[in-house]
Amino acid sequence: MNRIRPLVAVVVAVALVPATAADAKTKITMSGSTSVYPLAKKIALAFVKKYPGQASFTISQGGSDVGIGDVAHQRVDIGTSSRDLVPGGDPGGLTFSKIARDGVCVITNSDNAIANLSQQQVQDIFSGKTRRWDDVQGAKITGPIDLIVRTNASGTQDAFRNIFMGQNLNVAPSASQKSSNGLVQSSVRTNKQAIGYVDFKFTAGTHAVPYKGVACTLNNAKSGQYPGIRNFWFVTLGAPKGMVKKFVDFARSPTVQRTVVGKDYVQYK
Amino acid sequence: MASAATDFSRAVPRLWSDRLVGPALGAAGVLVLLVIAGMAVYVFKTAWPSFHANGLAWFGSGEDANAALQKIFDSKGPHYVYTLRAWPLLYGTVLSSGAAVALGLVLSIFAAVFIVEFAPPSITRVLEPVVRLLAGVPSVIYGLLGILVMVPFVGDHLISTERKESVLYVVQLTGASLLVATLLLTIMIVPIMIAISVDALRSVPSSWTEGALALGANRWRVIWTISVRASRPAIVAGAVLALARALGEAIMLAMVSGGVIFAPNPLDGLTFIYEPLQPLAAAIVQGAEGFTVKPYGATLFAFAAVIMVSSVFLSFTGWAVRRRLRRFGVQA
């Protein structure tokens, strides 16, 4: 045993030397959306598996705005964003490359299986204008509405505001904020009066309310019928170059779109 | 493999000569101090913009803290917004941990007296290990219990629709409340308090209690005026330890306390205990996703700084109180 050990050490060292000595690894830094983060991590892992030793990744999260700001100031190579480019609002010279799409569902308790909600209804409920289920057309229960939302740092909160509320409407400050999709899900599941919103992978055990007449499912999102859809972007300063371009192209390649993205999200096309 | 093990054990006495042990242990001690000092410096440095921008008003009340945090999170550099009135958070921290320790004191003293004075040995043999085991349960387990069992129960059965309607435009009563937060906190901290009180009650010299009994005092009076009184330093020590744990408890409280910053109002009558709250530590957990947003991160670190200072302050108070009480009782 004791004699074998140095031998093993030498073998490991030899395997490591070419990689470190030549320093062939390109470091790719990324920051931005918390919603894109799990997907970005999966794509980066797939990339490292396919092209071992070519690139290493540092991915941090902090919200789409942080990612866009970081890439514009060249603090990172790629910013990730779960919101679209704001013309005039965002710094110039940025290239947005779409890598996936994702849906946000409004959910209620199973005892309150509402057949449909219009955008106006969603806005009235979440802004606190409508506070009783009695005043919501199609509601199966009466009494006060309990709003369950995400914390303000959340990407899903950001998407909900953009897609459902519009920039000028805020969620009522009395709403109960949860720090994850799972906590929103469990709160809505156990509270008859509740309404919340989650990423559509988290609707089990609750009633996913059809929005503008379309059911909130991965299939309806894939076919483009469900309107509660947001885009996931890789943002670069100028067109992607070198290893970054290789990575972005890899993310958008049909194979990765089918296997990595298509499993939990909607392909970008 | 076997030969390597014997080599190692033989090497131990040679390596750890007295000459080496002193400096080695000293280095470990200094390292601990350095880590603590470094942590304190980092926390205060990061938190400084939040305190600096608000001054003493940081500790006051005013604008809705939920809306203020949203503005802080949305603000863009270089014009970061730091405005925050953190009173509801401070109040929530004091209220939940204070209520839990008060409840815990009563419960733990009664339980400890029962274990030491009244319980038959067969029960004590089971009860004591169970109490010590309970002290080690991770708080996230209590959080899960709270969110899956207690919160829905309180929401469905204890809070009436009329009660919910009565505060409809102020706050939502979902069951995640002061009541659940305090009860769970109490369950979490009581085992430590019982364990410490039991040890103290046992160490009261039997000559003291026997003397009192011989003078004709009844059993309850002996327990109350001699045993419990003599154990006060230990009971205070237990309460301080428990309070420190309650102050720093984050995960469980973030799960069951309602997810909205609100100051429960005792003037609301019974509704008071059903109102949500958010202690500082829970607020840090809630906002953890946004740490990288500069002003938001600074605000969360400001919460951390307040918790740190209170813990230090608490330790000193506990030490001072114990020192005064020790003159009248057993060592703790």
Number of domains of chain B: 1
Nearest-integer average pLDDT of chain B: 88
Uncertain runs of chain A: 1-22
Summarize model confidence as the mean pLDDT of chain A: 85
Q: Helical stretch count of chain B?
A: 15
Which geometry of chain B do the CA atoms define? globular
Integer-rounded radius of gyration of chain A: 22 Å
Summarize the structure.
The complex is a heterodimer of chains A (269) and B (332). Chain A has 9 helices and 9 strands.
Description:
The complex is a heterodimer of chains A (269) and B (332). Chain A has helices at 4-22, 37-50, 64-72, 119-127, 155-165, 181-190, 218-223, 242-252, 254-264; strands at residues 26-32, 55-61, 78-81, 94-108, 146-150, 176-178, 194-199, 207-209, 229-237. Chain A has 269 residues and is α/β, with parallel strands linked by helices. In chain A, strands 1, 2, 3, 4, 5, 6, 7, 8 and 9 form a 9-stranded mixed beta sheet that branches. The longest helix of chain A has 19 residues, at 4-22. Chain B has one domain (65-327): MetI-like fold. In chain B, α6 packs across α8 (178-202) and α14 (280-287) runs antiparallel to α15 (294-326). Chain B is globular and about 75 Å long. The A-B interface holds A 1-2, 31, 34, 60-63, 65-66, 69, 131-132, 143-144, 146-148, 151-154, 170, 173-179, 183, 186-187, 190-194 and B 1, 3-4, 64, 66-67, 69-70, 73-74, 76-77, 147-148, 151-152, 155-156, 161, 164-165, 168-172, 174-176, 254-255, 258-260, 262, 276, 285-293, 296.
Fold topology:
The complex is a heterodimer of chains A (269) and B (332).
Chain A: H1 4-22, E1 26-32, H2 37-50, E2 55-61, H3 64-72, E3 78-81, E4 94-108, H4 119-127, E5 146-150, H5 155-165, E6 176-178, H6 181-190, E7 194-199, E8 207-209, H7 218-223, E9 229-237, H8 242-252, H9 254-264
Parallel strand pairs in A: 1-2, 1-3, 5-6, 5-7
Antiparallel strand pairs in A: 3-9, 4-7, 4-8, 4-9
Chain B: H1 2-15, H2 18-54, H3 65-74, H4 87-118, H5 121-135, H6 139-158, H7 161-166, H8 178-202, H9 206-214, H10 219-230, H11 232-248, H12 251-256, H13 271-274, H14 280-287, H15 294-326
